[in-house]
Structures are given as structure tokens and as C-alpha cells.
Amino acid sequence: MTPPSLAACVVVTDEVHDLHACLASLQQLHPLVSQICVYGAGAPERVLEFARQAGAVVGAGPGEGDISLARNEAAALAGTSWVFIVEPHERVSADPGRLRRLLAIGPGMLAQPDCLSIQVRPAGADEGAPVARQARIYRAGAARYDGAAEPQLVPVSPGRKLTILTPAREVVAVTATGAQADPVAERARMRRRIERASATIAALEAGGAGGDDLVTALVDRARLYARIDEDNLALADLTRARATRCTQRYRWRAREDLALLLIRHGHFAGAETVLGELERDGADAGYASWLRALSAAAQGQARAALETLRELGEVRASGGELVGAPAILNERMVMAARVGEFGEALDCCVRLVAVHGLSRRYGRMLLKLWGPRSPQGLADRLVEAGGPHQVAVADTLRMLPEPGPAVAESLLDPVRERKPLAVRVM
């Protein structure tokens, strides 16, 4: 088996604060992480010098207003087959042995995954809150980043679809650090990013460029506008992107964002028109169904939304954004409760707690849906659902009102013989 070579790549700008702790967390993964590359996009020279002293390969150049460009330049510094993108405010923990086996090339292996999806937890997130997953580890020859403000991995070879591996158990976790962002400072930061995105659009227009590049820039700016609640400007950008000639995947991305924005603001007829265009154009049926379920729920059509959600596992937008099983189960649980299907709502809640480890977020709801029935019966349901989180579930339930502690005691009773079933995600 050929051992993998993996480089960690970090982009630093003038907003970087504690690069030391980030690099220290990466150095703990040696020798699996054989190289650390730091790319400066507007970063002070003292920060780059510190990275050199820490043993990193250092480069500097453009990219302050284009995250994808900066990440691609950072990856170009590496001489490895795999690249791991890390932000300077993040700390990394991993199981190097398992990660090595996932990335290695084995005898007779016909194909490898292109990307590995890992946990990314934002700063200040509650321990029981859903954890986002991002494709941050990828094969350098298979993928690159695209999108000035909202970077997404895309295949190097046009027309090819990236194969993304999501491990059954976590092998890598990334946690962001730092105090909660000051709303005023965060809005100013978004404004600076919008200015840079606008400059990118102006440059494309001045050069006569259109197509995929212009659509990408418009969608990126629209997302930034949406983050500061300037939805009319976001709508204008997405409407323009929808009308711009481009290749299929970029057309889908613009329409998906537009449909979601229209749903959020109650423009359901317009959203239905855009969803119809997506379906006729061959876009992913799963993500379109997710958007239809959101639209039905927003219109008070809980039964229709529930019927759609029952058919969905996790779905992925054309830009690569994942709507995971927990988000779908949560929406399904809410819709089931609205129409009186409390048994189905309970089943969803059990899986959110037992399989996905979200006991701190859904523990109280679980006890409410279970009602006055036997604590031992609920413990049995949690075990039958499968999942590796029984101890954490018991710890959470023990802190809740009765019957939480009784369920916890029964869940961890060493006398009772339990044979957990295989993990079920949906």
C-alpha cells in the first residue's frame, strides 16, 4: 500500500491573530502531515516570518479579495498528493492512523475518493449543536477551488464529478476559536468583502468576460449581501446570474440560490417557476425536492412537506453545499408533529439523539415526545437506533428533569444485555 502524502495549507491575511496555535495543532499530525504551507494574501511580513521560523513553506501574493485564488496558490506550494485546507483561526485534531488508511492507495484499487468530508465546528458552537461538514481534504490533481467569496471545490477536469468520502466515524475534526464576532466589526468585514467582489465583477465586465466567471462572482456577492440582510441587492445579483449564459452547473447554482431566497421571502410562485427550470434543466432532483419541502412548509402545507422529506437522505446543492441527515430529520420531525404523526416525530428525534449525537439540542424534545411511558422503553429505543453516542446521551439525559435520569440509568445499566443494531443515518 502506497502511503499518502498530505500537506496542510493555511491562507493568512491582515485579519490573522493566533497562527501559532493553528500550526501547533497541525504539527501534532506529523508524519502524516508531511508539509505545512502558509500563503500570505495581504498578511504582515512578521506573520510570514513567524511561519518560516515554525518550519512552514511560505509564499505570498494576490488573493486577499479572492479566497479561492488564495487557497489554490497555497495548494500550489505543496508537493504532495493530498491537500488539507485549514483556516488560521482553526485547531485540528485527528486519528492519523485511520486517516492514513483512508487516503492510502491499496493493491488493486481502481479508484480513490477525490475529497474527504470532515467536521468543522464554528467558534462558540454549543457542544450538542449540529456540526457542519466540509470537503477540506482533497487530491491536488483532481480538484481546485472556485468562487471568489464563497469557495467551493470543483473538479480540475471539466464535466467530471468529484467523489466525496464521508467516513462512518470521525477521523478529522476542525474547531474554530476566538471570541464571538462583534456584529459591527463583522458587518464591516462583510462590506469589505462585498467591495472586493464588486471589483471582481467590474473587472470581468470591463474585460468582456461573462459566462461561468461572471455567474460565480454574482452568486458570491449575492451571498454576501444576504449575510448582511440586504436581500434586494442579493435578489438583483441572482436574477442577473440566472439570465447570464453559462454552463449547466453554474446555471443550476444561481437558480438554487435564487429559489431559496424567494422561498425565504414568501415569493412562492416565483420560487416554483425557478424550481421548474431546475428540474427541466436536469439539476439534482434531491436538492430540488429539499427546496420544494421548504416551500411547502413555509406555506403551511405540512403534509406535503412531510411526504417529500420522507424520501430524502442527505442532499447536495450543485455548488457542493451539503444538507445533511440531521437537518432533514429536524425538518421532518417538525412537520410530522404539525400533522399529528407523533410516532414519526419521535422516531426522527431518537435518531437525531442516538445516531447523530445531538442529545443536548434534542434531549428535552425527546422526553416530551416520549411522554409518560416507561423510561426503560425509551432506553431500548435509543439502543435499537444504533450509533456510538450512548454515554454522551446518558450524560445529557441525567441533567434533565425526570424521566431523563431514569432513562440514563437504564441506558447504561451493565446488567441488561443489549445488542445495538448497525448505525442508521436515515
Structure description:
Strand 2, helix 2 and strand 3 form a beta-alpha-beta unit. By secondary structure, the protein is an alpha/beta fold. The strands form three sheets. Strands 1, 2, 3, 4, 5, 6, 7, 10 and 11 form a nine-stranded mixed β-sheet that branches. Strands 8-9 form a two-stranded antiparallel sheet. 49% of the residues lie in helices and 15% in strands. Residues 415-426 have low confidence and may be disordered. The longest helix has 24 residues, at 183-206. The radius of gyration is 23 Å and the shape is globular. It has helices at 19-27, 45-53, 67-76, 96-103, 183-206, 211-227, 231-243, 248-264, 268-280, 285-298, 302-309, 325-338, 342-354, 359-370, 375-385, 390-398, 404-411; strands at 6-12, 33-40, 57-60, 82-86, 90-94, 115-121, 132-139, 143-146, 152-155, 164-165, 172-176, 315-316, 322-323. The relative contact order is 0.07. The chain contains 17 helices and 13 strands.
Which tags fit this structure?
alpha/beta, disordered C terminus, 13 strands, two-stranded antiparallel ribbon, 15% strand, 426 residues
Mean of residue pLDDT?
Answer: 86
**How many DSSP E strands?**
13
Low-confidence stretches: 415-426
Shape: globular
Main beta sheet strand tally, sense and closure:
9 strands, mixed
Please count the helical segments.
17
Whole-number radius of gyration? 23 Å
Helix residue percentage: 40-55%
Order of helices and strands: EHEHEHEEHEEEEEEHHHHHHHEEHHHHHH
Q: Distance between the terminal alpha carbons, to the nearest Å?
A: 34 Å
Backbone structural class: alpha/beta
Strand coverage percent: 5-15%
